Amino acid sequence: MTQTVRGTILQTPSPDTFEALPDQIVTIDDEGVIESIVDGVGLATDADTDLGPSLVLLPGLIDTHIHAPQWPQLGSNLDLPLEQWLIDYTFPLESRFEDLEFAVTVWSHMVPSLLREGTTTAVYYGSIHESATTALAEACVRYGQRAFVGRVAMDHPEGTPDWYRDQSATDAVSASQRSIEAIRALPGAGGLVEPIITPRFIPACTDAALGGLGELAEATKTRIQTHCSESDWEHGHVLDRCGRTDAHALDHFGLIADHTVLAHATHLTNDDRSLLARTGAGVAHCPLSNSYFSNAVFSTRSALDAGVRVGLGTDIAGGPEASLLAQCQHAVTSSQMLETGVDATRRTDRGVADSRIDAITAFYLATGGGADLLGINAGLLAPGRVFDAIAVDIGARSRVRRWDGDDWGQTFEKVVRGATASEIRHVWVGGRLVEPTPT
After folding, report:
1. Distance CA 83, CA 111 (A)
2. How far is Cα of residue 290 from the mean position of the Cα atoms in its chain?
3. What is the DSSP letter of 60?
């Protein structure tokens, strides 16, 4: 059934463009696609949902990097370097998802929690367990979240513990193929939830598994996600083992393709950026997690200037904050630190010139940039796009209140920098109101 939503739209059509459209009437068709957007000023048209002056309408948020089985440790266990953190904390937690009942309990808490944060699209790493991964996809269908769900493949005997890994490259590829088939067969998944091939990263996978997963991606026409040049340790490991950078090693295994999602990528070279721009692959920028584990700041501006697709990610739970709006602020902050430098004892050469981004660019990464990275018809409120949207409170009781004299640019910046789940009043995915959850 066609529906209408009336309100003021705030969005970023490009990395450097902010758009405010006061009092618009959005018509959404029965497939959840925006049919038209017209100026409602002076019109007395009744809308199915009228947001009034105290709510603004923004595109839904697209989180391009989440480790779903790490949800129970969100906000904790962040005192170790990456390679030790995985062994001491994370792999033991992920191994618990062999227990399907435990997995379902976690997914039933995580998915609606993220919807309340305005995350309308999520790109998930599951665990190595097929049943738990399928259950994650089922939870996304049930709660109405757009998602890419991947069973993690990891088989290297030197990079993973014997109690949490695929027993062979053949097992890793076969289980990944079965997971793809199971997710695609789920009732209600079509157009909403898709599988994604997920080698954890090169240190956790043998060459045979990496090559086999690349062939599987091509044969099944399935998107790919993995980690790339994430830290000094991981980047150095790949150079020592493969004799080339992470991006070029992944390309060698057939894992760099159009819409491949590479998490972190803080250590990219100019040649790596050229490869990604040429192939259509891109980066899930995880600014807060990078502060803990990456030993570097991702150069967002350099990547965008090179034509690389860039989205934004929380990296739950390496990133201890589930809100993608909070990640926008972290992205701005880290870019400013990269430009100005952080070591006051250095009187010169303290930073990297022309590195900073603003709230407009950061919000674009969380919306249109993520949509472009994934190749989905979301990220912007415009005719022909799916109606994935959030309504944010800017009224008198909101922490991001719009004061008399504020222009729409100031209001937008307040929302991006300060809005939390408490200010997000409505969430739609594909035209369906998913939060608050309909009774």
Report:
1. 28
2. 14
3. P
**Residue 58, strand partner residues:** 390
Q: Do 174 and 217 touch, CB atoms closer than 8 A?
A: no
Beta-strand pair 193-195/146-150 = parallel
**Residue indicated by tokens 């049930």:** 142
Distance CA 376, CA 386 (A): 9
Q: What is the mean pLDDT of residues 119-142?
A: 98
In the prediction, which pLDDT does 41 show? 85
Q: Which domains does the chain have, with CATH numbers?
A: 3-59+379-435 (2.30.40.10), 61-374 (3.20.20.140)
Instruction: Decide: 341 and 283 in contact? Cβ < 8 Å.
Output: no
Q: Is the pLDDT of residue 74 over 70?
A: yes
pLDDT at 43: 85
293 three-class SS: helix
Q: How many CB atoms lie within 10 A of CB 365?
A: 31
Distance between CA 90 and CA 148 in Å, rounded? 21
- Averaged pLDDT of the chain: 96
Q: What angle do CA 187, 190, 193 make, to 5 degrees?
A: 95
Q: pTM score, two decimals?
A: 0.97
Token code pair at residue 136: 């994650």
Query: Angle of helix 408-418 relative to helix 324-340, nearest 10 degrees?
Result: 100
Contact 402, 94 (CB under 8 A): no
The band of 44, judged by pLDDT with boundaries at 50, 70 and 90, is confident
Q: Which of 24-33, 35-44, 233-242, 270-279 has the lowest mean pLDDT?
A: 35-44
**Distance (Å, rounded) from C-alpha 167 to C-alpha 152?**
13
- pLDDT reading at 436 higher than 90: no
Contacts 24+ apart (CB under 8 A), 245-250: 245/269, 245/271, 245/272, 246/202, 246/272, 247/272, 247/275, 247/276, 247/281, 248/272, 248/275, 249/202, 250/202, 250/210, 250/226
For residue 395, give Cα distances in angstroms to 26, 61, 127, 328, 425. 21, 21, 42, 22, 11
